[in-house]
Design brief:
By secondary structure, this protein is α/β, with parallel strands linked by helices. The protein has a four-stranded parallel sheet with strand order 1-2-3-4. The two termini are 36 Å apart.
């Protein structure tokens, strides 16, 4: 737990070790949410394996992290219509053709091995670590989602899934003067005022 911008000396590390953060909040949008979920699942699998082998296990702070996932691509990537395509890739249409060669796109096809494995392992590890806050994320969707498939994992609490009226895949996480819901969800304030 150290800041890479600080000099690498024992005093810096010492200070950080004895003054840990009181909260760890991981926030991910779209593919970033999938990366966070994969990291948490892998961390839990390692902890579970060590626990089952009888080794001494130092509890992972990451399993106590608070997760906020905005328009997560955890069920799959599926653009709906040309408007969504252009909004997702405003630079050029040819970017989409080139992007197909990148690993992330085939790994985000609905029903693919990567996403199915992530969902299965997340649900299994949520059962193995029932008090872990990392397996109870808050999820925020725009009610005009048009890039990824909307859905939650079975281990996600239904009451922690919120819809943002008038927001799409891109705008769901963009704060404006009149739209503060992402901030409320991250800091875990009541979101009733937004009708969710």
């Amino acid at each position: 737990d150290f800041d890479w911008r600080l000099p690498d000396d024992s005093d810096t590390v010492y200070l950080r070790e004895h003054h840990p953060y009181s909260r760890l909040i991981l926030v991910g949008h779209s593919l970033g949410a999938v990366v966070i979920r994969r990291f948490i699942a892998d961390e839990a699998i390692s902890q579970d394996s060590a626990r089952k082998s009888g080794r001494h296990v130092v509890p992972s702070r990451f399993l106590d992290a608070e997760l906020t996932l905005m328009a997560p691509a955890q069920i799959g990537f599926q653009l709906t219509g040309l408007k969504a395509l252009l909004r997702a890739f405003p630079f050029s249409f040819s970017l989409v053709r080139c992007a197909a060669v990148f690993r992330a796109f085939p790994d985000l096809i609905p029903g693919c091995f990567t996403l199915e494995q992530l969902q299965r392992e997340t649900v299994e590890m949520a059962a193995s670590f029932p008090t872990s806050t990392a397996f109870r994320p808050r999820v925020l969707w725009g009610d005009e989602e048009d890039v990824v498939l909307v859905g939650r994992f079975d281990s996600d609490p239904p009451e922690a899934v919120h819809q943002a009226p008038g927001q799409n895949h891109v705008t769901v996480c963009k704060l404006t003067k009149d739209y503060q819901l992402p901030c409320d969800v991250v800091i875990r304030e009541k979101v009733v005022a937004y009708g969710t």
